[in-house]
Amino acid sequence: MILSWFLLALLLIFIAVILIRAALFRAGDHKSGSFAVASDLPAYQPTEAAGRFAELIRCRTIHPEKAGEEWLPNDYSEFVRFRKLLEKFYPLVHQKMKWELVNKHSLLYHWPGQNSEQPLVLMAHYDVVPAEDELWSHSPFSGEIIEDQVWGRGSLDTKCTLFGIMEAAEALLKDGFTPKKDLYLAFGHDEETMGAGAPAIVELLKSRSIRPAMVLDEGGAIIEGVFPGIKQPIAVVGLTEKGLTDIEVMLEGSGGHASTPDRINPLAVMSKVILQLDKKPFPASMPVEVKEMFAVLGKQMPFGLRIVFANLWCFKPLLMAALPLIGREMNALCRTTCVFTIAEASKAANVIPDRVRVVANLRLAATENCDQALAYVSEQALQATSRARQAKDPLKLSVKRLYGHDASPSTSSDSAAYKKLVEVIDSVFKNVLVTPYIMLGASDSRHFCAICDQVLRFSPLKMSKEELRSIHGINERISFDQLGGVVAFYYNLVRGS
Ligand SMILES: [Zn+2]
Question: Is the pLDDT score of 309 beyond 70?
Fold first, then answer.
């Protein structure tokens, strides 16, 4: 009897602690009100600016894909045309800054400030991914302007940030502005194909002993309706980005005619490998960036959800287990993901393949490096194929890495660069929550981690779910308001640096 009273008392204390913690877990500066872009850009004409932007969109700056180990020959005339337009639209930038081509087509501008210590690097890339014309409502390279929107491939990824940087710099130069610190503008030409442009810029800066205090590239954006119970737009700033590796798994056997199949079919065995990795994903963990994100966003959530986020000491295991159900983004933030994207086997319906080849694309959390990921996939493949490898007519298994880079080092949310970025976001975009996060894709900025401790990934524009899907998809476009916000953001960032 005494024991049950004791247990009941413990339970009541536990519930009280959880509820009190949830009640205290509230944001001091509760953001409400409508989203707005505050711009004090002098003489910015949205229609004229959009006209310039549309001309940049019309350049088909598609970088060639790698074919085997060879780069396909490409005519770079569209890249040259793009650069000529930059010279035409931004004459002061090209007069007052030192600029050069790196690795033939990447661009590096140097704007000397009052002080060459602790420079700022603003990045973008001007290559774009291909687009299937017939699927679009307006041709992807037409640069059509319809109802205050500029249509076209690269309008969001990421000619818009390059444009914003250039418009802001030209406007500031027109005012006779000199930045306090040196500024570098680094525009890659082959980001989408993981090319050598950005690494070459990093090597060049390194050879000149330049160590930037802050690097800003594309990455997070201002998003809405993604987190439960939060109505405000949220600016997610990438403090780090996940690594990436492609792993090939191959099974080789003797094949044969489909009329007399062996009991062991290499295709069936390979499907076991795929299912095994599906059933046994990489372990989940909660990285510091996600904890910080929960600390910001959790406080804005309704009371029911705040109970969970205020008491992660108790609910974390439950949250981790429920990750795949919460959503694919949340799942990807907390673990290394592995998905098979290529499968090759027989070319004819009546031929048993003598070789089955699949490729998995893995996005690496900081918890696994490329070698550990390869070891994990190999281990699972070995387990799934053990019988087939020991059969009378055995299959031969090989697992190899085709490509790989680890997750980037993380920038602290306590850093001067992050605080500066929050300040500039607040100065331009009203009623926006700012939170750290992990960039799930890969960007050129990772190369700059070799020369800078404060690398951030953020594109200053609000994007709907549909707009996010249009990146590398169809009907990519940007509104005049979004473009104006991008320009205003870089204007305030440079002016305050
Ligand atoms: Zn991009």
Answer: yes
Report helix angle 416-428 to 480-495, nearest 10.
130
Residue span of the structural domain in which 440 resides = 37-240+409-495
CATH of the domain at 357: 3.30.70.360
- 237, 349 contact by CB (below 8 A): no
My answer on whether 356 and 413 are in the same domain is no
Query: Are 183 and 280 members of one domain?
Result: no
DSSP 468-496: HHHTTSSS-EEEHHHHHHHHHHHHHHHHT
Q: Within this chain, do residues 380 and 424 fall inside the same structural domain, yes or no?
A: no
Q: What is the pLDDT of residues 5-60, one digit of tens each?
A: 888 888 888 777 777 777 777 776 656 667 677 777 878 899 999 999 999 999 99
The CA 20 to ligand 1 mean position distance, Å, reads 44
CA 471 to centroid of ligand 1, rounded, Å: 9
Domain termination site, one of 405, 439, 456: 405
Give 427-475 pLDDT, tens digit per residue. 999 989 999 999 999 999 999 999 999 999 999 999 988 898 999 999 9
- What is the C-alpha end-to-end distance of the chain, expressed in Å? 69
Half-sphere exposure of 46 (CA within 13 A, CB side): 16
* Residues bordering ligand 1, an ion, CB closer than 5 Å: 157-158, 218
The Å distance, Cα 251 to ligand 1 centre, comes to 35
Asked whether residue 28 is assigned to any structural domain, the reply reads no
Residue 70 has pLDDT above 60, yes or no: no
Q: How far is the CA of 242 from the centre of ligand 1 (A)?
A: 15
Total domains present in the chain: 2
Please state, in angstroms and rounded to a whole number, the distance separating the CA atoms of residues 362 and 199: 22
Query: Do residues 43 and 70 both lie within one domain?
Result: yes
Residue 5 forms part of a structural domain: no
- Residue ending a domain, among 405, 432, 467, is 405
State how far the Cα of 112 lies from the Cα of 109, in Å rounded to an integer.
Answer: 10
CA of 432 to the centre of ligand 1 (A): 23
Q: How far is the CA of 410 from the centre of ligand 1 (A)?
A: 20
Q: What is the CATH number of the domain that holds 158?
A: 3.40.630.10
| 157 CA from centroid of ligand 1 (Å) | 5
Residue 429 inside a domain? The answer is: yes
Q: What rounded mean pLDDT belongs to the chain? A: 91
pTM of the predicted model, to two decimals? 0.90
Ligand 1 centre to CA of 238 (Å) is 14
Exposure string over 289-309, b if 16+ CB within 10 A, otherwise e:
bbebbbbbbbbbbeeebbbbb
Question: For residue range 341-374, what is the model confidence (pLDDT) as tens digits?
Answer: 999 999 999 999 999 999 999 999 999 999 999 9
Ligand 1 center–CA 175 separation, angstroms = 31
Does 341 lie in the same domain as 276? yes
